[in-house]
Specification:
It holds the Pfam family Glyoxalase. This is VOC domain-containing protein. The protein is α/β, with parallel strands linked by helices. The chain has helices at about 20-30, 95-105, and strands at about 10-15, 30-35, 45-50, 50-60, 85-90, 110-115, 120-125, 130-135. A hairpin with an 8-residue loop joins strand 2 and strand 3 (about 45-50). The longest helix is centred in the first third of the chain and has 12 residues, at about 20-30. The protein has 2 domains: about 10-60, 2,3-Dihydroxybiphenyl 1,2-Dioxygenase, domain 1; about 80-140, 2,3-Dihydroxybiphenyl 1,2-Dioxygenase, domain 1. The strands form 2 sheets. Strands 1-4-3-2 form a 4-stranded mixed beta sheet, with helices on one face. It is globular, with a radius of gyration of 16 Å. The mean pLDDT is about 85.
């Protein structure tokens, strides 16, 4: 049985450099830093809009796992693999302007339009290799 009134509260990402990762999400998506609890490890909490949080957590130096998944099928950092790989998707109000910002910052991105022609998508990675998608309406053009 599904939980009544359930909603997404936050996504967490481990990183060896949470300050660098926080700066990326603040500059690219407009997240704001909010107060975070004092724990036995460093963390930065970011907020986007009224209720979505991103928790950036200092990676345990004993962990032997890679920083972030490149895709479900390849160990190569190619955003063309992300439509089927692990990623988080955001929506933006002006897709074309957002894509231009990525280009200006030199971020390697893969653009595509869904086969139905209604949704434009751009796939790219954050500095730790976590997959990101931004979706916009093709009607914005």
């Amino acid at each position: 049985m599904a939980a009544v009134g359930a909603y997404l509260n936050h996504v967490s990402r481990e990183s060896s450099d949470i300050k660098r990762l926080a700066k990326f999400y603040q500059e690219i998506f407009g997240f704001e830093q909010v107060e975070s609890p004092k724990l036995e490890f460093n963390l930065i909490w970011l907020k986007l809009g009224p209720s979505f949080y991103l928790h950036l957590i200092e990676r345990d130096p004993e962990t032997k796992l890679p920083e972030g998944p490149w895709s479900a099928s390849s160990a190569v950092a190619d955003p063309k693999n992300l439509p089927r790989g692990h990623h988080i998707c955001f929506s933006v109000s002006n897709f074309d302007s957002f894509v231009q910002t990525l280009k200006e910052r030199g971020i390697n991105a893969h653009e595509r339009t869904q086969p139905d022609g209604k949704t434009k998508q751009v796939f790219f990675f954050d500095p730790d290799g976590n997959g990101l998608e931004v979706a916009g309406s093709a009607a914005e053009q």
